[in-house]
Amino acid sequence: MPANHPGRQALRYLPVLPAVVLLAVFLAGPVLWAFHASLTNAGLTGRHARNPEWVGLENYQRLLQDPAFPLSLALTVLFVAGSAILGQNVLGLALAVLMRRARPAVSATVGTAVVAAWVLPEIVAAFAAYAFFSRDGTLNQLLGAAGLAEGDWLYAVPMVAVILANVWRGTAFSMLVYRAALNGVPAELTEAAQMDGASAWQRLAFITLPVIRGSIATNLMLVTLQTLAVFTLIWVMTAGGPANGSTTLPVLAYQEAFKFGDIGYGTAVATVLILIGGLFGAAYLRLLREQKP
Amino acid sequence: MLRRVSKTVSLVAAAVLALSACTPADPSGGNRTIKVAYQKTDSFTALDTMFQDAKKEFEAANQGVTIELQPIQANDDDYGTKLALALRSPSTAPDVFYEDTFKVRSDVDAGYLLNLDSRLAGWGDWAKFDDAAKEAGTADDGGTYAVPLGTDTRAIWYNKKVFEAAGVELPWRPSSWQDILETARKIKAASPDVIPFNMYAGKGTGEGTVMQGFYELLYGTGSSLYDQDSKKWVVGSAGFKDSLAFLHTLYQEKLAVPPAEALDPNVWKKVFGEWFPKAKLGATVEGSYAPSFWQDGGSYAWPGYGQEMGVAPFPTQKGAAPGAVSMSGGWTLAVGADTKQPDLAFNFVTTALNAENSLAFTVASSQIAVRTDVAADPGYQSANPFVKDVSGLVAVTHFRPATSDYPRISAAVQEATEAVITGNRTPEEAAAAYDAAVAGIVGGDKTIRK
Q1: Average model confidence (pLDDT) for chain B?
Q2: Which site from A110, B50, B60, B439 is most exposed, i.e. has the minimal number of CB atoms within 10 Å?
C-alpha cells in the first residue's frame, strides 16, 4: 500500500478525533450557543423566556447606543493593560530577573510571598483585597499609623484598587514563567556580551529579552485572556461601582443576563468579550510567529 | 413474501404499543405524582419540615397519590435561577413550587404559573388571608397566581441608648419626615460621633436601597412607582423629587453615613454587627427580620437587643393617612402552568398552607403571618419582642410592581439615589435622568406623568 493512500492518511487523524469532539462539544458549542442567543431576545423570565424571538442584530445595535458600553469597554482595556500587560507581566519579569541575583534566602522568601497570593482561591483573594482597601481596612490603618491621610480607595479610585489587587493576585504566574525562561538563556551568550563591555541594561535589552521573546508572547497571551475574564475580584470589591466606575465587560454581561434576566443582551456583551480575546490572541500569535526565521 | 408481511405487521404492532405507552395515563386512576420544588439550606429547614408534614397528611388523605419532594440546596439567587431554568421546559417544570413574590409577575408573563382564581374561590381558608398579602400573588391581569406563605415588613429600628442621650422621648414615633430630620439633628448635636439616621442609598446596597429606604419615602408621598390602573410607570412626580430631596438633606447635613461608606455593598453588616450593638448608630430603616441577626445563633448575636432596641413605623411625608408606610416581600407557593393534575396540585397547596402548618412554619422561620388566624395565635406573638409591632405594618405595606421590566427600573432608582447623595446631581436633575431612563427601558408610551 503506498504511503499516501487516502485511507491511511485519514487514519493518521484518528487519535486526535476524541480531542476534536470534546473541543467541539465543550468549547465551540457554548460559544456558538452564546452567539446564537445574542441574536434573540431570550430572557430568564418574562414574555420571552420560553419562546425567544429572532431579533437579528438588535442586541448589538442596542449595545452600541448603550452609554454603559463604551465606558465598560474602556475600563476593560484599562484593566487588562494596567493589571496584566503592565502590572503582572512587567513586575513578574522584574521579580524573576532580580531573584536570580538575590541571595537564596531572600529569593525564596519573596517567591513564597508572591506565590501565596496566587494560590488563594479567587473569592478568598477578593475578600482579602476588599479588607485591605476598604475604609476600615489595613491600608488606611497603616496610613493612619504613619500619620498620613486616609482615603476611601474603593470609592474614590475603584479601578486603581482592582488593578492593584489583580496585580497582587496574578504576578506569581508571570514570575514563574519568566524564571523558567531565564534559566533557558545560555550563560555563554550573556558572558560574551559582558566581555564585550555591555552593561546590565544592555544585556537585558539586547540579549535576554530577544532570547525569551517566545515566552514573553506566550505569557502575555495567557495573562491577557485570564484577566479579560476576571469577575469575582471586581464583583466582591466594588460590585462594578460606584456609578459604573469599575464595570468591566464581564460585570456588565453578568448584570444584564442574571440581574436583569436579559439573556440575549447579556450574551451579546459576552460575544464582544470573546471577540476582544480573539483579537489579543491573534496579535500575540503573530508576535510568536515573527520570531521564527 | 409472507414472512416480510408478518415482520412489517409485528413492527407496526410494536410501534403502536410503544406509542400507546407514551400517552398520559387516565388521570382518574392509577398512581399519580405531584412534584414539589422548594429551597432548603443548612440554616433554612423550616420549609422542608412543613412539606414533609404536608406530604404525610396529603398522601394519607389521597390514596394512590405520591408527593415527590425536590428540595433545592441553594441561596435565594441561585434558587431563582435554577427554578427559572427548570420552568423553561414543560418536561422539567415542577407541579408545585416555592416562588419569590418578586418573581410572580414576570413568571406569569413567561407562562410558568397557573391562574388559581376559580380554585381559590372554592377554598374557605382564602378569606383568612390578609388582603395586602394577597396582592403579592396577583399579576398584571388582575388574576391570582400564587398563595402567600409569609411576608416581611420594613420599619425604623432605633437604639434607645442613643435616643436617651439626645433627650428624645421614648417610645419614639415620628409622625412626619420633618420629625425624623429634627430627631436626627438632636442626636448629632448631643453625640457628634454617632451616625444619627441611616438610610441605604446607591447601587452598592442594591435592592436594599429601594426596599429599606427609597420606597418608604416614595409611597409616603402619595405617589407610586407604577400606576396599577393604566399599567404604566409613573414619571415626573413631585413625590419622587421630594423623596430624593429628603435623602439629599440627610446626607448633605451628615446625618447619615458618609457617601463613600453608604455605597459599600457590605455596609449593612456594620449596621447590624457593629454600629447598633456599640450604640454608634441612632436609627436605620430595616426589615422585620432584623431580630434574626441578633437572636441567639444569629450572625451577630446580641443578648441585649430586646432591651436596647426599639421599633417605629416609617411615617408618611406630612403625616397623611394612614400615617405609616412599609414595604414587603416574602414567598409564595405556586402551581405550574403545565401540571397534568391542576386540582391535585392546588389541593396539596391548601394542605401545606392550612392553619396548623402555616403556624409552625411562620414561627420556625421568623416570618410575618399572612393568615389572620395565625397572626392571632399566642405562639406566634411570643416568637420575639418585636413580632407584634412589625406584624401590624402589614396593614400599611406595599409590594413592588415586579414586572419583567422591574429589575432595570429598580437599578435606575438606585442610580438616582446615588447621584443625589454623592452630590453629582440635584434632586431635580436626578429625577429627570430617572424619567429618561424609564422611558428608555419600557418605551415612552408605557410611562405616565402624575
Answers
A1: 89
A2: B60
